[in-house]
Sequence to fold (258 residues):
Amino acid sequence: MATQFGDLLKHWREARKVSQLDLGLEANVSARHISFLETGRARPSRAMVLNLVSVLDLPRGSRNTMLHAAGFAPSYRSRDLDEAEMAPIAAALDWMLDRHLPYPAMVLDRHWTILRANATAGMMLAQIGLAAEANLVEALLDESRLPSVIENWDETARHFVHRLRARSAHLGGDARLDEMAARLAARLGEALPDTTAGAQAIIATRYRLGETTLSFFSTLSQFSTAEDIALADWQIEHLFPADEATREVLVALGEKGQ
Fold:
């Protein structure tokens, strides 16, 4: 009979779409041993658990779950940003947000909830009644929020559906992400296939704020060496002007604010 650890190992191996042979090769053990671990015929050491979760690229919280299932204490914890040891992280976040001005930038958690935003992002969010701790996907679904100001809502929402599903898949399944993706997909409907995929170098989102339309594309970055559970899930989104008109508006706003 398979153990809880064995069931979890099989789940993650299948989620990552790797065979027992492939996992064994990456982890430097035999496929036979992987099979024994999955069926409960063998028990892993702590080092083996850490080896396997690293090869499978599990989220830090799921690594703790695997350790617990194998009978070991967790290795990772979640810290508050105001803890002393997190001071360099908080300073780095502030540095990235401030240095991106006059362009917008924000810090998001795994469910696209805003944790921090620079002045330009805060100003744009305030225009539609959003502030810190607002959720961007919920705002994308709320007719009085983002759909009222995003000119290419269908294109933006379709892109978000793909991002949410990809993120959930990487996490081995996330009920909140799956639920948000399903709601967005339902709003789009089956009658709206993506007929423009690959036709553009980037997907730019066009925000209509008063008489002005601002067009942005974005990049996402993360702390690649993060061992903290929450920090490993955070992403910093930097928005860049997708056209010269947007750049000029933002530069003018930046000069006015100096």
